[in-house]
Amino acid sequence: QVQLVESGGDLVQPGGSLRLSCVASGSIFSINTMGWYRRAPGKHRELVATITSGGSTNYADSVKGRFTISRDNAKNTVYLQMNSLKPEDTDVYYCNADIGSYGDNVRTRRNYWGKGTQVTVSS
Known about the structure:
This protein is mainly β. The protein is built from no helices and 11 strands.
């Protein structure tokens, strides 16, 4: 079974930094775009950052210059380096990826979500 597992969320003071990781596992033959999203209670889901298999990146305006997304294709892992964190960054951060996998003797490509990791920015 393909799954995404996030880690790295924590409680941090404003101005601090965190590094989130998301590892994709399973019978994977390819991963296209990977990204990070956030959605706190009462808020709509927001794209934070994405990165394509070719390394092209896209960021929400609210995090440009502060967050950096990267990936290690050999490890099926995407990272989100978060610097200069603000209280408004507080949220559950979810990993997302378009993944091609093997199962039941067929190839399947679909979008996957991780369970999320909590980031809390507070003094």
